[in-house]
């Protein structure tokens, strides 16, 4: 009998990549095997992102392509998950009749019901992760879905809804299972991990969850992503400073370095509060690396306001900066309230300025590591070189004849660049 094959098409953030891995696990429990390319699959899952217009257009384009595939192969199944799936599923079904199932991230019951209706034999309970398959050294684990913040430019709360935290026992069980299957590092994911737990009956916080995970045997490192600056408390900073397996890295999106722009973005903090927070974190956690996200060209952003953002980046000296040009998303507060009045050329120019500055800053920071001994968790081998990350999230490449996969190795840095280190 031919084993049915699946292919997962993923765009977007780490949350989506983690979710795709989980969907793959469940499909394997259902009896599917991975197809090397979409064309040889019987079922495709599109794991979608709509945070930017360009991403949404890509999803719609791919759905158009798949309509043709389905026309050629009527038994071909198309499943769609991710941020494209909002609460108006009827409208989606009407607009994209080629799709067999729209399901929200984490809705494996919907997936199981669909499989049952298709007459697929369910080999075991798909609500458990009992597959014997090995997993990557570094695993991603969603702990909270959705967001309550309604930053004025962001479509996420409209598409993913309000925050829903997974119970601590669920997360600990999943991480323990991933470690049994070979993972050495877990990165806890959420749109805002620092609001974890407030919706659960016992109202644990992220510090409580990290404390529990710190005791999981065999788990060498724990990371978390992303932290909203307004929700990072002094208690949390103290908690993570005391947990030996929690890595010294935090992504703390700044978005803008001007108070009026931050207010229009509805970010809930001022430049002064952000600076204070960075000072507190650096005082409590030695060697911590910080990443951030910045949006340029927000409606009405003047040259002076942009210069303030640039000055702040230069002053704080982040280890990594992800920069994006503002694009209006339907129904968001910013799209309803403000004109998208910064020209595309100006946005591009500002984006380039941030990238140029950051290459210089990261180059300087990393150059201090030359000659230093660092501990790397080895995640894989690319073109004959092993690669992995330091505790503070620096990517390191090195050569060795030994099988280093999954090992913690000490290496000495020989060459640096803004983006990676050689050892
Ligand atoms: S915190 Fe703001 S930017 Fe982040 S997901 Fe929530 S609404 Fe969007």
Summarize the structure in short.
With 423 residues, the protein is α/β, with parallel strands linked by helices. Helices cover 36% and strands 21% of the residues. The protein has helices at residues 14-29, 53-72, 89-95, 108-117, 156-160, 168-180, 206-213, 234-242, 259-265, 271-284, 303-316, 333-337, 344-367, and strands at 5-10, 33-34, 43-48, 77-82, 101-102, 138-145, 164-165, 185-190, 221-225, 249-251, 289-296, 320-325, 373-382, 385-389, 395-398, 408-412, 415-416, 421-422.
Explain what you see.
By secondary structure, the chain is of the alpha/beta class. It has 13 helices and 18 strands. The strands form four sheets. A six-stranded mixed β-sheet has the order 16-13-14-15-18-17. A five-stranded parallel β-sheet has the order 2-1-3-4-5, with helices on both faces. Strands 7-6-8-9 form a four-stranded mixed β-sheet. The chain has three domains: 113 residues, Methylthiotransferase, N-terminal domain (Rossmann fold), CATH 3.40.50.12160; 230 residues, tm_1862 like domain (pyruvate-formate lyase- activating enzyme, Alpha-Beta Horseshoe), CATH 3.80.30; 50 residues, OB fold (Dihydrolipoamide Acetyltransferase, E2P). Bound molecules: iron/sulfur cluster. The site of iron/sulfur cluster has 10 residues, from helix 5.
